[in-house]
Design goal:
Pfam families: ADH_Fe_C (PF25137), Fe-ADH (PF00465). It comes from Anaerococcus faecalis. The chain has 14 helices and eight strands. It is α/β, with parallel strands linked by helices. Strands 1-8-5-4-2-3 form a six-stranded parallel β-sheet. A hairpin with a 2-residue loop joins β6 and β7. α4 crosses α5 and α10 runs antiparallel to α12.
Amino acid sequence: MTFSVKSTIKVGDDSLETINTLGAKKIFFITDPFVVESRMIDQVINLLDKSVNYTIFSEIRPDPDQELVDNGKSVLKNFNPDLVIAIGGGSAIDATKAIIYNIYKERGEKIPFIAIPTTAGTGSEATNFAVVTVGDSKKVLIDDLMLPDYALLVAKFTKTVPNFITADTGMDVLTHALEAYISKNASIYTDTFAETCIKTVFEILPKVYDDGDRLSLRERMLEVSNIAGIAFNNAGLGINHSLAHTIGGNFHISHGRLNAILLPYVLDYNCKNDERARKKLDSLAKKLGHNDYTCIIKEIEKLNKKFKIPEKLSGLGKIDARNYANAIDKMADTALNDRCTPTNPALVTKFDLANILRDSF
């Protein structure tokens, strides 16, 4: 059993002061257009020493693809920075990881990297995972080279996030924690982190959804998003993510929302087909004041209802039923071979995955 936390994590507005302590002379910022247009990035740039030269690559969009990664890599190489800073949600941080990884494969050197998340959800600032869209599928990259050197958690940067994104990303946190908790590679260390995350999300995510100005609660969501990332970076995930990856790659739906819809179906499958997973979730349910794992599923369904997340994928109104039916075989095959599937607690076949895809639609 191994457990590691390789990124330095700092919380609060003053964590931004870390940037000037690293002695960087050329900083390459990677972000999305909103972070620039909202002037959020100015709150970081205004803190830089006067001698620092910087440039901003702000072309990040949801579900970054290989073309975007290649473009960012080209711009970065031309600027030749000594520090890279990603500011944004999971897409910005994942794209930055993929860019850095591709640069390493060419040059054999890792550029120092700071991640500043603007959503409490993916935990990408604490993981060696990156997801890049390639054609109609999502490719999962896993390599410690992509771990940020520093994760700076600043609650005010999540304040502008609308409540539906707060919900989607928060449900992503819950999915990370639950999948890590019942993963084949779970340990006492990852269980401790995951339990804290699960309890906190159930308690405070509805409050942040109702009132996004509660910065102390937003900070707690950033913290549990980060430690859920640490948990699954060590324990792995499962078929909830495998299925969300392939559905998202084919139909371009929010990753967090897909995870939220799939979660009751996947937990039910895992608990009915793996005794260890069922016992762990039964035990967790009792710690949360419930009877058994079915109560956890019901609590997830209550959250989804509050957040206006439908029970079925068809309720999204964005997926053509015929196209979905025609894609099930391909999606099941892709999910079976996804890098998150091996640590799923219950054994799965392509047939099982196809059934979950049908049931959840």
